[in-house]
Fold each of these.
Amino acid sequence: MKHLEVRDLYTNLDSYMDKEVVLRGWIRNHRKQKDFGFIDFSDGTFFKKVQVVYDSNIEGFDDIQKIKTGSAITVEGKVIPSPAQGQEFEVQAVKVVLEGDCPDDFPIQPKRHTKEFLREEAYLRPRTNLFQAVFRVRSVAAMAIHEYFQSRNYLYVHTPLLTTADCEGSDQMFKVTTLDFANVPKTEEGEVDFKEDLFSKQTFITGTGQLHGEAFATAFSKIYTFGPTFRTENSNTKTHANEFWMIEPEIAFCDINGLMDIEEDMLKNVVKYVLEHCKEEMEFLDSFVEKGLLEKLNKVVNTPFVRITHHDVVDILRNSGIDWEFKPGYEDDIAKEHEKFITEHFNGPVFITDWPKDIKAWYMKVNEDGKTVAAVDLEVPGSGELMGGSQREEDYDKLVKRIQEMDVDQETIQWFVNLRKYGTCVHSGFGMGFERLVMYLTGIDNIRDAIPFPRTPGNCNF
Amino acid sequence: MKHLEVRDLYTNLDSYMDKEVVLRGWIRNHRKQKDFGFIDFSDGTFFKKVQVVYDSNIEGFDDIQKIKTGSAITVEGKVIPSPAQGQEFEVQAVKVVLEGDCPDDFPIQPKRHTKEFLREEAYLRPRTNLFQAVFRVRSVAAMAIHEYFQSRNYLYVHTPLLTTADCEGSDQMFKVTTLDFANVPKTEEGEVDFKEDLFSKQTFITGTGQLHGEAFATAFSKIYTFGPTFRTENSNTKTHANEFWMIEPEIAFCDINGLMDIEEDMLKNVVKYVLEHCKEEMEFLDSFVEKGLLEKLNKVVNTPFVRITHHDVVDILRNSGIDWEFKPGYEDDIAKEHEKFITEHFNGPVFITDWPKDIKAWYMKVNEDGKTVAAVDLEVPGSGELMGGSQREEDYDKLVKRIQEMDVDQETIQWFVNLRKYGTCVHSGFGMGFERLVMYLTGIDNIRDAIPFPRTPGNCNF
């Protein structure tokens, strides 16, 4: 008999009430009494568990009572209205079959575990309430992003991860090789002989799909990437990981104002989608992870985002009367403490535009003042920078000048520069760190808990 | 004035007919006559181009006639019924503005280019008809896969690419490092000192997300991955690349027969989705790339797939009367020539099951005969193996025995083995190479033309 998924049971309860069903899944908790037993049952298809009850009339009552938390079971039983408060139904078991047992040393016991402990058991933590919620939201948010862009006719591009292009500085990138480290081949001049490497060149894992994305934007007008990204940063903060996922849309015939419209519209739609599709998970996160999460997100959906220049932000910071650890400067980046203040000041997401050119990337369009670039960061309460974007320099000569000023290696990206030679156009794009979004949506405050198997300096386990 | 996308124009033609519109995009071809001009205009949002016509009354007629193929332009004009055959409408321009010009040496001229030539210009080839079709189908097929699994409540899992687990043999995997190749740090014993590497261990890019996917399947029941995958294979065939995308679903409480049901249902749904969403592209591919493509795919949607054991396939091959280059053997793998014969013999997709255990992976469930495993490959006409899957060994002791027999390093995957200790269950999964699918859907016969920027031995350009 084909088994029923718990999600189907919850979403079509009427059609199963008083019927026999077969369920397969895991015991999250097993409470035994002399003549009864109660099993908190989950198959992971729905956030809420099913209460399975059995009594001493069931075949193998004594053996069933011995089945431990964590075990896989098949339950045959009848869906009945529940006498217990807070649940509409329960399943009265007529048969419980042990599929895979579980010893007492199972780390995920029905009690509160710290997030630090669960990171050590990363392969088992998806079986907890917290990570059932976080990883379902992550999955649904990913779908929301695809849905948003595809329904608006953006092309999804798989940009390559292996690259020889040195666009962000090779110190930021992992080196990739098939060479034997213990025995690196050398040329007669004593240099590493990359001719023997699989690609006959030194190769890296890229930190961005933007360059390749731009090539596709000049053919399809509107594209997005969504894939893994890597940084070698040796930094142990709550918001940095060495492997993470990024979304990088790129839009032709779009200036920085059009870009902000898209960023805002996308974020609002993704938040709405997740609120609609993860009702149970979001209520749990609102109660147990970030009080006020639902209120925060509903407000995001319904309020226009603030747009303000970097210059004006610095004015506000300087006039705030606060004794900043980092003094706000018109030529300087915005520190974490400033981000926090500004998003609280405006009580919602804030686009900060027109940044000093020396602290931003070489491919951004320099404004007419010659001092700032058409860059925009979106800062959100609680999570800081969620998206970073810019209008790109579309003029060949100006771009080459910036490349030289910023000491970027032009040779490996000449093809990218050529996009300005063959039918160039005003265009803009942004990047959104997907884990940052998941943190914002779930209230989770550490990136290690927003990604299935986190990689951070010194940590590449599982 | 906000510009209109060509897709909107085509899909809502009635509401734009006889109206003024603004379009932004690129000139694919420019035919000039003394008092007229015709521009084949594309913004890449729709496969079909728009014919823009202008006459000598337009302001700047002489300058407009000088605008070259490849240039970016803004067109203001009126949508009118077209007198030309084969097109319902054209745009009578009242204004043409050059946004970005294009020199004569633009490689993508309005003539037939070989695919080999276009690979050398990979960053520009998306501007050709062929790659407009292939990469749109690729994008839509990716969405079809997400749509299929998400609407059936599978969890999308981002499994890590960086790994220390040596599950497929480290010769198959790229090494990843932050160490300086020219100056590899050594221990006192003269070994490479990975303590100085970012993760303090030797690290690889993984060739599969299966192991991590199984961890999530034992928590959410049904999961899928969809991400990039890497192999170091030094092989220059039409079907191998060193970087490609894979889909790897994993389903708890599902045996090999259930797995085949899912594979078949998914493929049929993805084909149907692409046929519905890429009508123009598929017609083009049917006409110019693979004659009979549409017929082939429509048949796939409507015909049950054959299911046959490896043993019976060998019988058919041996009884075929063909003088094979590789003699079919009951203990051997199936060669390309055999795949071809079998899919032609059955004239459609064929599931081949129950493979000799010695040529298959260590994690597959050994059948009761002790000789074969519960593995299944799906072979499709023209493209060969499209999916490979198996029921997994769910018994702890049997799995450990196979790990030892096959000489796999158990230490780095002990966590994976432990999944058999904590509530194990019957479960199955498969992998589908996404480029293989794109080739099957488009008729493209070389993987280098199915992926935006291909990476093959000696080739990591752009």
Note: Chain B has a mean pLDDT of 95.
Amino acid sequence: MKLALDAMGGDNAPSEIVKGAIDAVKKYPCEIVLVGDKNKILETLSDEPNFESLPITIKHTDEVIGMDEHPADAVRNKKNSSIVVATQLVKDGECDAVLSAGSTGAAVTAAQLILKRIHGIGRPTIATPIPTPDGVALLLDSGANVDSKPEHLVQSGIMGALYVEHVLGKANPRVGLLNIGEEETKGNEQAKETYQIFKNMTTINFAGNAEGRDIPTGKFDVIVCDGFVGNVVLKFAEGLAHTIFKLIKEGIEEGGVPVKLAALLLAPTLKELAKKLDASEYGGAPLLGVNGYCIISHGSSDAKSICNAIRVANEYVGGNVLEHIKNALEKEDFFKDSNLAKRD
Amino acid sequence: MKLALDAMGGDNAPSEIVKGAIDAVKKYPCEIVLVGDKNKILETLSDEPNFESLPITIKHTDEVIGMDEHPADAVRNKKNSSIVVATQLVKDGECDAVLSAGSTGAAVTAAQLILKRIHGIGRPTIATPIPTPDGVALLLDSGANVDSKPEHLVQSGIMGALYVEHVLGKANPRVGLLNIGEEETKGNEQAKETYQIFKNMTTINFAGNAEGRDIPTGKFDVIVCDGFVGNVVLKFAEGLAHTIFKLIKEGIEEGGVPVKLAALLLAPTLKELAKKLDASEYGGAPLLGVNGYCIISHGSSDAKSICNAIRVANEYVGGNVLEHIKNALEKEDFFKDSNLAKRD
């Protein structure tokens, strides 16, 4: 796999991005094009002995899209920005996938404008893997779209199921619709209408409504929701983890010697747990529904997250998910027979 | 305060409800009417020595509304159910407040039908206190309504701020609108419209958009959202806490003697933390917007949660919040001048 990596995107760019790339080419069969400011990239890259022998090249760009810029305006006006150029490399067939930890809005917009949507998909969707005790649950959409129509949620469900099957390797994944109760009469209009479409489908394994409490338990493999709710849930989890760890740390600092000793003894167990629940282990979320492989990483990504995201990109491309999605949309009578695919 | 307590509502009714009542009358200045099956209530109550001298009476009812019944149908058809009779006691002026851990839908419906809405309020809203490191944040609506209109969210904000001020004792509470970004242009249509109303108001301290990560940190005192999102967030927190504790327990069980010893030493610190984050410490969520004091408890409430919820009821009635809400709606030019209060 040849990856276009936005070296300038994210809070720790470019140094952590470059370090992640160096780690990844040593671990996974891949070739990386670092897209961004050549001199800044070389500051980190040249620290690596024999860096010129690594399968890493640089594509120089002199513009960057900031986190606070309006995504559509920025993508249209900054043709030489790292995210736009990286996405264009995929469009031109020079790379297989694009990965960015920069502005999510800009990455989604660049993918939509340059790679375009897959025919039959109304809106692309960000699919975030949520750690569960036995693996992951895919939450989508986790922030690309708000005020989604029921057919957008249904399309998310189909794409999410194919991703889980062909990339995460779980056959017949259980698809749940995020809602406020188990019964099909529960929820807002969006959820109630979506339920009625899902329950008549035969191409996915619809397992009913998922409640908030089902997200982290692993009861469902794919959890479908509007991007507004998905984004709130993901950021809430972040805030909660941060608050809990802060309180534990304070408790240990205020405790006496036995408490400090205990913390030391318990550290490996807690570290193992933290690793299990650590979103950075998964590193990247695929943007499903665009006509190309695009992976979005968290703005706070460090080298480890980026390296993991490159592994995700590798598996994503290897899973040939795009072709599976296109085939599924062709086969799904529901989409052929109805106006769902047309009503964007 | 004289409380009508639904003795039959909740997973652990009536025994834990009755035990909670016994504890509460010993701790707080209150009088309790236990509403439910007299014989079943007496099974627990008569275990208490001299129970006849406690300020607890029984109002016998022979119907119960189950968790799986359709709320509106059940409330209309079961006139002699514990929740309907308890709510009627408030309507008739025989009690000051009603508290139930039974079906939330039934409790909300009974309150709406019997107590009616406050004039000017389109929809009542459940205000759930979320533990934060330094106190609580009030999340509302946490499940009474979905597909809310912007004016419903604004009304929630006003009522939530008055609750925090007069019951939780925090002056000038910071009101946040739950959204997917800080900027006022972010979010779905509902959030964008609500922001525009909030930002022009002078009677509340609107502090801008709150993101998911801000919910547990205490950055806002009141967080306003649609009941769909609020419900998903609360249940997600429940599921996450459950999953994390399960994993910690497994890790400790699988660990050797040092890990088990460490867990023992760390137990008081973790217990202190769990207490800080334990929702049952707060025990009850007020249903704001109905013309009477109504408190809703979690279905899984035990005696401790019920006792705490009775404390909440005491403070809620003592804070005279209903009068403050009515006065605020009178004074709020925004509501007088616009059609917001009329458009239910």
Note: Chain B is about 45% helix and 15% strand.
Amino acid sequence: MTNRITLCLAGFGNAAQAFCRLLLQQQQYLYKMHQVKVDVTAIAGRSKGALFDPVGIDLSRALEEVAHHGMFSSNNPQLASLTTLGSIQRSHAQVLVELSTLSIENGQPAIQHIEEALCQGMHVITANKGPIAWDFRRLKELADQSGKWLLHETVVMDGAPVFNLVKETLPGCSVTSFKGILNSTTNFILEEMETGMAYEDAVREAQRRGFAEADPSLDVEGWDAAAKTSALLNVLMNGNVTPPEILREGIMKISMEDVKAAQKKNCKIKLLCEGWLENGQPRGRVLPSLVEKNDLFSTIDATSSILSVTTDLMGEICMVERHPEIEQTAYGIYSDLLTLIRKTSK
Amino acid sequence: MTNRITLCLAGFGNAAQAFCRLLLQQQQYLYKMHQVKVDVTAIAGRSKGALFDPVGIDLSRALEEVAHHGMFSSNNPQLASLTTLGSIQRSHAQVLVELSTLSIENGQPAIQHIEEALCQGMHVITANKGPIAWDFRRLKELADQSGKWLLHETVVMDGAPVFNLVKETLPGCSVTSFKGILNSTTNFILEEMETGMAYEDAVREAQRRGFAEADPSLDVEGWDAAAKTSALLNVLMNGNVTPPEILREGIMKISMEDVKAAQKKNCKIKLLCEGWLENGQPRGRVLPSLVEKNDLFSTIDATSSILSVTTDLMGEICMVERHPEIEQTAYGIYSDLLTLIRKTSK
């Protein structure tokens, strides 16, 4: 790795934009602490167009154009007529940062982007959970064979370092089970219902506040939580599973009566993600579950999240992320970039 | 570092014994995964006597003798007439594992043990919080100058990786503040008082269960919590403070009326450890504080503990250790040993 690192961004949504703002803010730090200049040389957005410049894209301009017009300007001298795959192939960047929109059916097109990047000799940082939930083992092997890194800290709990917690700070431990609250939309909806709001109104409130998509089915049917459960099984417990293999029940059938019955038992209903070993095989489920009010899990409010990991040698360790914003997602990607710098400069 | 690592243990109390049991259990793993044979070549206990053998001490025998007689047997062929300092000087071990009894007044004799070990060219793993709370900066500089490692994960929250969380998994982040419940004895006593038990009875119950010492003053006066706060300030926030510089109030003055008044406000009283920056300088305090019942901190029960760290780039991350046993302390020391193996084999 030279003292210059070049990035190709696949996707330019909210997380990608926040990451670019953070990069601009951290340029001095990166140069001073790591003697590294980071340049984004390609950006391929689905709806915003593509930018390409081997010398380095003017990120301030790109951010401003998207903020004002929702897409890159036709006057932008770095505008390019490239698909995402074309950008990866043509960019000659050292690192693909995969930020494209998740397709929950099969993890595509992100998987294809990552395959192509590894094929081109690039390292990969993905904030897209699809590839890790659907195809981690194969992609990791591909990366290992190419001597490249596949980093994915942002995939579960934004920048909260749940994967690195196990990998870097619990040496010699095997994860035997985990339990988490990992989907903020359903957590918010269930919390609103506790205050007496009907399910439909709570969904609309989540949409109004920007927590839920126009089509909330990925969240309320538990697909997002299942994808995260699958990713955790694959990475932390050496699994080779996909989201449809996760036992899954969403929150659509939770009625006000259910919520009130839980309250009578001094409990709350939370959408729990769980992983465990069954005859040595990693298994997972996503299920609305009763949690006692004096339990740690019941205090996880709104967009906060928690992951509790049980290991053979160290017992139970929990990590809680409180009230994250998009900046925490940006940090997750940035922390992978710093990890890459540390790993490749040795 | 060769494929053999030799350890000198200063202290042979509960944590040291649990660590030796874990070492025996992990021998195969260490050899298979890291091609390393770990031998303890010296043990210096304060009341149990000393063992010394360059070939390696028979740990099973040592553990059995102490379990049955409270000290090493006079028949033990590895018995030696050595002080702790003498053991460190004579052992020629590669690593000192500092496990001696904490003196809260000044961090001695552990500081002297560590100085001597570094002077002898040894790496140091300390589970004793004294040196980190009292003299971290100087000892770290001493270690850096000698090109040796000074590791201390066990000092706060047993084996829960609070120091490595920041060091290894939050790259580029600066810690701006922290808040924790870090002393289990006081946490247990306050919890018993919530059930209506008088302070004195709660202290006796803690002693009966083995959470509190015969002289509980280190815990109930907040000294243990202050030492941990000082250690966190020194390591995570680049401080250079000592326990007496921590604003400190224990729980001796907490009355049943205080506990009931808190309950009326839907709160609990918890002994909080806090660190923050004041005009750029790290400051700390230990104070019984009101915590709302629906807050994460109020669910930290009995011997569980929590540390919440706020950083510039990643917001607030909390780590919770639930219901640790002595095995978790042993794991903390073992994880430092694995870190040492990883760092020195590169």
Note: The CA atoms of residues 249 and 287 of chain B lie 5 Å apart.
